[in-house]
């Protein structure tokens, strides 16, 4: 496998790519949707919502957290997760730029 050469891209481009990659799995979308419905939750609650094993859910949570899309706080023996506003604001800005472009330009 080749080297990605991320140093040839801007910090913003690399950050957006990490965010997009983290969202590139249906289980992660399901986790985000679940977190949208709840104030916060314990990992076990998420496991009960998905047709996946606990270690698999934990790996998806780790990917979302590493990308900056969710935050987790340890409360006793459990970790409570919630959405990370900062990560989603970056995505929002990117998609607002695209939406603005699409509403003002005509394509072939």
From TrEMBL:
<keyword id="KW-0805">Transcription regulation</keyword>
<protein>
    <submittedName>
        <fullName>Transcriptional regulator</fullName>
    </submittedName>
</protein>
<dbReference type="InterPro" id="IPR051081">
    <property type="entry name" value="HTH_MetalResp_TranReg"/>
</dbReference>
<dbReference type="InterPro" id="IPR011991">
    <property type="entry name" value="ArsR-like_HTH"/>
</dbReference>
<dbReference type="InterPro" id="IPR001845">
    <property type="entry name" value="HTH_ArsR_DNA-bd_dom"/>
</dbReference>
<keyword id="KW-0804">Transcription</keyword>
<dbReference type="InterPro" id="IPR036388">
    <property type="entry name" value="WH-like_DNA-bd_sf"/>
</dbReference>
<dbReference type="Pfam" id="PF01022">
    <property type="entry name" value="HTH_5"/>
</dbReference>
<feature type="domain" description="HTH arsR-type">
    <location>
        <begin position="8"/>
        <end position="106"/>
    </location>
</feature>
<dbReference type="InterPro" id="IPR036390">
    <property type="entry name" value="WH_DNA-bd_sf"/>
</dbReference>
<keyword id="KW-0238">DNA-binding</keyword>
């Amino acid at each position: 496998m080749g080297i990605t050469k991320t140093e040839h891209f801007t910090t913003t481009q690399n950050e957006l790519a990490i965010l997009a990659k983290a969202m590139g799995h249906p289980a992660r979308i399901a986790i985000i949707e679940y977190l949208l419905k709840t104030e916060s939750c314990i990992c076990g609650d998420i496991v009960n919502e998905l047709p996946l094993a606990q270690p698999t859910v934990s790996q998806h949570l780790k990917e979302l957290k590493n990308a900056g899309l969710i935050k987790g706080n340890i409360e006793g023996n459990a970790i409570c997760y919630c959405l990370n506003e900062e990560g989603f604001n970056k995505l929002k800005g990117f998609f607002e730029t695209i939406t603005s472009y699409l509403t003002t330009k005509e394509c072939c």
